[in-house]
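Board notes (copied after class):
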Amino acid sequence: MRIVRDREFVLNEDKGASVAIGNFDGVHLGHQAVIDLARKATGPGVPLGILTFTPHPREFFAPDSPNFRLMSPAARANQLEKLGVRVLYDLTFNAALSSLTAREFAEQVILRDLGLGHVVVGADFCFGKGRLGTAQDLTALGAELGFGVTIAQLHEAAGQQISSTAIRGALFEGRPKQAADMLGHWHRIEGPVIGGEQRGRELGYPTANMALDGLHLPKLGVYAVTVDVLDGPHKGSYYGAASLGVRPMFGENTPNLETFLLDFSGDLYGATLSVGLVDYMRGEEKFDSLDALITQMAADCQTARKILTAL
């Protein structure tokens, strides 16, 4: 998949692409339905694309708001590539872009700069300065300017409307399985393994530490997880138990994710991991002693193994 961040550098071979537009945070089932409609609108030699924005407009207009992103831009790109997206237009959202009216966005971005042949948006799509443009406005502009528009209806699963907001709520309440029902995949936290204080190694449970900067925090606690090591000599898929939180046994700390891989031995520093939250096992606790903590960690690993082997 090719990533285009500057409207000035669009290849001629990408002109006429069929593109789904949106933020695609989480790449949930509703997003996937929009992408499938864009895929159906492609013809021979017509690339399938995504048009999205970094930073998220909400981050641009309210930089001090609480973290809400379900995944990093890199994790989003990886998930989109798995869905067969050929071109990701990840445009910089800035003052110039945000000041374009709906008509100017259609004329300058969709038609002149990207040369898109067909666009697909959700029924609740808004665009242009002040979010005044609607999906219906885009349809009218497409008919006038010469590009196709498809409006995707909002997606539901088990009678519940699928949205990034609903997924965040399920994760915050410690219900990763419900989140997965809406995502179509386990909620994954992706990033490089960073150096830690090696307390897990000293306790007999060496963990891979990952930062959670900028991400919406699921409920703090211990999870059964699947782990994909995406690069390096240990590339592959594993089971594990992970602690997501502030490590109350050792004082107040910045939240991070510490994952112990079952049946694994090796050095993962610098490797990129994708950790999927499968089941919430318990909350964070402060134990009376390190021995009590070690006993609980052994029980957590046994519980995680039982949960994961039953998948």
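Comment from the instructor: The domain at 186-309 is CATH 2.40.30.30 (Elongation Factor Tu (Ef-tu); domain 3). The first strand starts at residue 2 and ends at 4.
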